Each structure stands twice: as structure tokens, then as C-alpha cells.
TrEMBL record:
Keywords: Signal. It comes from the Bacteria. This is Secreted protein. Pfam families: CueP. InterPro entries: CueP-like. Residues 1-23 form the signal peptide. PROSITE patterns: PROKAR_LIPOPROTEIN.
Amino acid sequence: MNRLSALLAVCALALAGCTTSQANTEEAEFLASVDLGGMDTVGIIDYLDTLLVEAPPHDLMAIVRSDELVLSHSDQEIRLEMPADSVYVSVAPFINQTHDCFYHSLTTCLGELRNASVEVKIIEAGTGAVLVAEHATTFDNGFIGYWLPRDTAGTIEITHGEFTGHSFFDTGPDGATCLTDLHLRASPLPQV
């Protein structure tokens, strides 16, 4: 390698380091300006989805995609990578009212059943493995969210009192992160 090539390689590395450092500084400043400083992608999603509806931070828009979290405020936008092995899927079970949604908005999506007691079972297609089986409470926004293995599909079953419903999920690259089609219907009475 001649001296000119070596010098160019060193300059390229220095510029790449400056660009990365500048991007990290801008990202940290943005997060601090919306009271999310020091949080990673998982922490931000978990925090924002569980906030009280009346307390969204600073007109922030936060959209969950399968591969990234998009945060925007005023004229600024940043994109944070999702974990390599999991995808956040948020579900809004409903009885009477729902809305269309594909990518979950952590700061604007509202479901019908706010702070409702539910039983949740998430089953992987093909293997039948139970990924989640728990009693839970929907968040103040009417959703409940789960970190599910990436590139997995299956069904989510939610029961609320005498109402039960199912929805399909897919955590592949084109999968929805916002499931609003889980319609709860009265369960048939057992025959005696």
C-alpha cells in the first residue's frame, strides 16, 4: 500500500468516526429534549406504551416498525434499531370499537379496553409452542404489548370476562406491529 492510499484510508476512518460520533450526539440530544435520555429502544417502547394517555411527552410521535423505532418531534426525526432477535407487537382487543392500524403509534393509538383485566395466550404456528400465557392488564391506551421472537408467526388469544377473541401475528420483516382486529365475542355457554 502506498502512502497516499494509507493516508486516504486513515482519513476515511476518521471521517466515519466523526459522523458516527455526531449522529450519536444528535440522537442523545434529541432523546434528552423529549425526556427519554439514557434509554435504549426497548426501554423507550416499554416506557411510552405504558404512559398514561394524558401524559404523552412533548408532542412526540413514536412509530414501532419491525426493524426500527421512528421518533419525530417538530422538524427532527431519529430512527433507532430494534433488537436483532425480537419484535414488539402491540394488541388492542375490542368488543365494540376499533381502528385500522399496521405500525403501532406509541403516542396516539387508543384502544377500547383501557386498564382492563385480560388473559393472554400467544401460540407459535407450526410448533404449537406457548410463547406467553399470563393474566395481564391492558395499558391506559387500551393496548398490551409483547416482545416476540423475530420471524415467527402464530395466534394471540385474549379473554376478558366472558369475551374471547383471536388474532394472527407475524414478526417477519413485513409483519404488523399494531393488531387492532382482535374482536372479543361472548363465549358460548358450556352444554350441560
